[in-house]
Write a structure and sequence with these properties.
The chain has 426 residues and is α/β, with parallel strands linked by helices. The protein has a domain of 211 residues: Enolpyruvate transferase domain (UDP-n-acetylglucosamine1-carboxyvinyl-transferase, Chain), CATH 3.65.10.10. It has 13 helices and 24 strands. It has a 5-stranded mixed β-sheet. Strands 4-5-3-14 form a 4-stranded mixed β-sheet, covered by helices on one side. The chain is elongated.
Length: 426
């Protein structure tokens, strides 16, 4: 697949980006357990894997242009799967699926995938509550199909947020009150997700400082919802960077999920002098307004470099628009994959006539020089595709990008979104 990117004069208007997968996956699982019809808008393409898993459990899920429609039959409304339920690649939501499967009247054979440690910890806890749990060879477990779960009382312990939320979800399948003591050291709140779906979870401060008791009554049903999944911040970054380098640009990115721990790139842009405005909505999402502006060069190394590994190509392209020497080092990890990404990045930047040097630990870019279009091989790598699409907008002539199929599973409308936002150079 090949795309031609033509030079742009500016970007303006407002847009959204595909929703974050984690939030969409959580909503889809809970909507499948609710009683009634739920609608989930702005779901990312990658949600299709989970849709297939839930349909295999009898969930009624329809796809519409704006998202998904789920006709829930209640927490006991799913049906026995014909095949092994494969949880590989589902992340934290795999824990939720394990919890609800342990509470079903039917038994399921599941493959834990890569979440072995947390999943086996959860299964051990649920077994103590009377869940039918049997390990088999090859990471396969047989779960569910027994009597209703017994209320679980868990002492204060260092459990992950995913395990704590899964235990509360399992409490809906218990006869009685499930109690979970937790130690709060961060802003994590295990009960928030279930409360959003109409489940009552009580939270009481305990005598021990920093300790809380969560209680949930079994038998509660989740209520259907209509919601829009907040945009995934990494997918907004190429649009933000593109606007910064095009004079008189002003772009609004709507309803982004910019939470604590996901602001690092945006904070870096501000340090470089980028005129960004972040406005928080009542629902916790963020409106981001970006305008073009002059950027200062910097040095990215050590811990900062580690946090920005996925954005190194975009950073290197951004560096071409700063005035001075922009150093990116301590990124040797990027040389150790299927190919040397740093070397390939440097090679492609030089095709655009960027002033760039390479050294074992990274690269250095001398900004302030114009770019010229070229034929770029993105290696079907998402980070390279985003970065050189941005460079193509800034270049003085057309740029051709090859091997960009990686967008199909992440942001298929990326280039059409750019087309709608830009004013062409004449």
């Amino acid at each position: 697949m090949q795309i031609t990117v033509r030079p742009a004069r500016k970007l303006s208007g407002e847009t959204t980006v595909p929703g974050e997968l984690e939030g969409a996956a959580q909503a889809l699982v809970l909507a499948s357990l609710a009683q009634g019809e739920s609608r989930i808008r702005n779901t990312p393409p990658a949600i299709g894997r989970l849709v297939g898993v839930l349909r295999g459990l009898g969930a009624a899920i329809a796809e519409e242009p704006e998202g998904l429609v789920i006709r829930g039959q209640g927490r006991l409304g799913l049906s026995a799967p014909r095949d092994t339920v494969d949880l590989k690649g589902l992340g934290e939501v795999a824990l939720y699926l394990l919890a609800l499967l342990c509470g079903q009247r039917f038994s399921s054979r599941v493959h834990l995938g890569e979440a072995q440690e947390e999943a086996t910890q959860l299964l051990s806890l649920l077994a103590s509550a009377g869940a039918e749990v049997h390990g088999e060879a090859g990471g396969i477990w047989l779960v569910g199909g027994g009597a209703a779960l017994q209320p679980l009382t868990h002492p204060a312990a260092e459990l992950s947020l995913g395990v704590k939320t899964a235990l509360l979800l399992a409490g809906l399948y218990a006869q009685g009150t499930t109690s979970l003591r937790e130690l709060i050291k961060t802003g994590e709140r295990a009960e928030r997700l279930l409360r959003q779906w109409g489940v009552e979870v009580l939270r009481r401060r305990q005598e021990v400082e920093g300790e809380w008791l969560l209680t949930i009554e079994g038998g509660q049903e989740l209520q259907p919802r209509e919601l829009e999944i907040a945009g995934d911040p990494p997918l907004a970054l190429p649009l933000v960077v593109a606007a910064l380098g095009l004079r008189r640009s002003e772009l609004r990115l709507r309803r982004l999920a910019i939470r604590s721990g996901r602001r690092f790139f945006f904070d870096l842009l501000r340090q470089l002098g980028a005129p960004l405005t972040l406005e928080e909505n009542e629902d916790g999402t963020t409106e981001l307004v970006v305008r073009s502006g002059k950027l200062k060069p910097t040095r990215i190394a050590e811990k900062r470099a580690e946090k920005l590994l996925d954005q190194v190509p975009l950073l290197a392209v951004l560096a071409t628009q700063t005035e001075g020497e922009f150093v990116i080092r301590d990124v040797e990890t990027l040389r150790q994959g299927k190919y040397d990404l740093v070397a390939h990045l440097v090679q492609q930047l030089r095709l655009l006539e960027a002033k760039v040097g390479e050294f074992p630990e990274g690269l250095v870019v001398e900004g302030g020089y114009p770019l010229r279009g070229a034929a770029i091989d993105t290696r079907n790598d998402l980070s390279l595709t985003f970065a050189f699409a941005v460079a193509g907008l800034w270049a003085e002539t057309e740029t051709t990008l090859s091997k960009v199929q990686c967008l199909d599973e992440v942001f298929p409308a990326f280039f059409s979104t750019l087309e709608k936002l830009q004013e062409r150079k004449k």
